[in-house]
Amino acid sequence: MSGIARRLYRGEIDVDFVGRKKLWYGLSAALLVISIAGLVLHGLNLGVEFKGGSVFSFKAPTANIEQVRSTVSDAGPHQVIVQTTNNGWQVTTESMPPEEVTTVQKALASKFGVPQNQVNLQVIGASWGGQVADKAIIGLIVFMLAIILYLTVAFEWKMALGAIVALLHDLVITAGVYAWSGFEVTPATLLGFLTILGYSLYDAVVVFDMIKEVTAKLGTTSKTTYTQAANNALNHTLIRSLNTTLVAILPVAAILFIGTTLFGAGTLKDLSLALFVGMIVGTYSSLCVATPLLVTLKEREPRYQAIARRLASHGGKAATAVKSPRQPVTAGAANGVVSDADKRNKKK
Amino acid sequence: MGGVMFLNRAFTPEYGLDLAGGTTVTLRPITPNGSAPTDESLNLAVGIIRNRVNGSGISDAEVAKSGDNIVISVPGVGQEEVVKLVGTTAELRFRQVLAVAAGSPPPPGQLPTEAPTPSASPTATGKQTSKAPRPSQSATSSPTASPAGRGLSSALTNPSPGATPAPSDRPGKKADQNGAGKNTTGKDATPSAKPSQSTAPTAPADDPMAGVDTTGIDPAVLKQFQTLDCAKHKGQGAQDDPAKQFVACSQDGSAKYVLDKAAVTGSSIDTANSGVDPTTGEWLVQLSFKGQGPDQWSKVTTTAFNSQAPRNQVAMVLDGVVISAPVIQEPIPGGRAQISGNFTQVTADELASQLKFGALPLKFEKSSINEVSSTLGADQLRGGLIAGAIGLALVLIYSMLYYRGLGIVSVLSLVVATVLTYEAVVLLSEFAGFRLSLSHIIGLIVSIGITADSFIVYFERIRDEMKEGRRSLRTAVEVAWVRARRTILIADAVMFIAAVVLYFLAVGGVAGFAFAMGLTTLIDIAVVFMFTKPFVALLAKRKFFAKGHKLSGLDAERMSQSPTGSTTVPQEA
Hints:
The structure holds two protein chains of two kinds. By secondary structure, chain A is of the alpha+beta class. Chain A has helices spanning 3-10, 21-41, 48-51, 65-74, 98-112, 130-154, 157-181, 187-215, 226-261, 267-298, 302-313, 315-321, 327-347; strands spanning 45-46, 53-58, 81-85, 88-94, 120-124, 184-185. Chain A has two domains: 14-46 and 128-306, Multidrug efflux transporter AcrB transmembrane fold, CATH 1.20.1640; 53-124, Alpha-Beta Plaits (2-Layer Sandwich). Chain A is elongated and about 90 Å long. Helix content of chain B is 45%, strand content 16%.
């Protein structure tokens, strides 16, 4: 065992996450812009449950489910749910213009030898529209407030802010992936989004817990700045973050793989794609968005500014205190803070 | 839990609509005058029916509009009782309150003697205080105009704000009331009002039975009232017969009522609006009656007003639930009324729309009942299960490779968590109507990750302790636990808050999903505390682990201080 694998196994990794925050912020900003553009330009491909749709029902005792499905989807609609009823078949599709409806009716009639007027059409409203979606949004807002409150009490408001920003970041990017890929948004997808919500916060909370523990030891004689300490905490939980993500994502990847390769479109794919993207983005954001944001906020506090200033004036010592391969970047960041503080002092 | 499962001979969960198929009922609404129902009234009906079939949000039922019809899909086939339940009419009715008690029986031996005091009214804050002087005022004036049957002593000894038996048909008294801040906004017909969120009327409630004036209450109804527990049964969908006395719970289940025959029905309501009182800035609901409504309303308010608390309240019952029960402060002729007190814009709007659409009694006719197969097909379910199994296998392989001996702990912990989850799901479908849908299955598979994270956090902490080179494995296991425990609890609390908020604020599938998520979180905590940690502590005593065998996952190579020391968290000396 050698190289990266060995270092991973032994937990010896040191990446300067916080020092490269400009890179992460840039990357995130680009992803957000692309996602929002996708949402604006393409919009989400909402499923039958959100928009309502057309329901065809007819009798065809000899048909099988695959024949019915392919007959309907060949005629145009791409959201096709086939169900048997006690007296025949029931096919639900998205809402269609009248001429397309006629095409589907004709196709079914000719394929299964039913008179066209016996292929019944019913237009059905959204079962997940209105009340359900509205309440989900209210729930989401209350949830975020509750989480902010909880994190403010358990940690502090700066951490709550960092976690919520990362959360919104994850949701927008995942929604963006849906917009660009054109994957259908079904109730299952929505539940996937809600899972991401919990997962993204969970990850940030574990990382913050470690940062809190490590930075609690920073005193006036400290040899590390808040930035460096937070970065160390991140590296400390890095193995856990990677392992957790891997363990959580393996089953999802399996579902996504099976859902896309073996069965084509379906609930499995809808849900697992949201989870797959959301989990990757969630892990990324707790390391590269939530934490740098927190550090930016914390370094503005006088006590951490003081540490940064003192260490900057003994630049050499600070560099040896933390054996970080990315020392120049970290020192640079610390210097930046110092000059900020100096400016403020001069104003006084 | 396994024992309970065994005793109930329930070994498989009930499946939801997408996995098991179900019964689809199409309802056609019938309006009194045969016109097409408005969109708003249909939406209200959809909301009412959704509450009836999926009130707890875990039964995976769906309700959709289809043109003017309403289509309801309920998991399972042959759901006769559901068909019956959703087809009943939901109409608003006004009924005089005859008796009130707390929604659930108090624990035995504890008499709720505090009930008659004003302080027992939890929601009437502020408003109540401003009214504080009024009971004495009424007490002094009441003897003169007190009708027969209302005892003076009661008026004096029971000075709760709800019990304001003041005769206000005298002009002087009315002026007093207006002066006291109950501005009538210049309406011709003096609106009556009293703050009354549904819990407020609990104030005048006496000891459940002893103090209740049972005169005029049908003994059968009274018996029903005594046994009714609102915590268990909220009565939604139990449509009331307007010609009979009726027992109902308040919307939040905190109070239960015996109600007189319906005095006014919803079809007599002309309109209802929410608005702000220009003088006090309070939200209120105004309603007006039509047809026979004004007369009936005037009659019931007069009767109520001349009665002693709690009979001075008129309850509004929608779909078997008391949505509001304001105290009548004066007889209200003219067919216009105003309800005020502790409303927010949202609650005022909600009550106004309930009142408004109560005016449109939507009756339903069953136009078709179909049994449908699952929407997913067996292939998707099989795919999901295969994928889950593959995913789980990958997780097991990975944790064995990475954590070696400790991997066994995580594997066994996951097995325990899986068994517990399965049992919980089975029991919930047996007792609480939980229906497992594919979304739940995926949610549970995903929770593998969250559950595994607890172990990973703990294992990494143990390794940290060992790396710092200060501790033997046995102490490391204990010290690491203290630190990991906090992280696990904080992180799980976040998940649990998410689940609780979503469960109570969302409807339909989201609530069911939140329910599954909350359940998994609790199981995770139980497994980590009661299985993983003791198991690791036990293993730490074995030579294989304590001596750091190559395959134990705690061997010297992994535990050694790294040469650069870069991963050691800097600590102040």
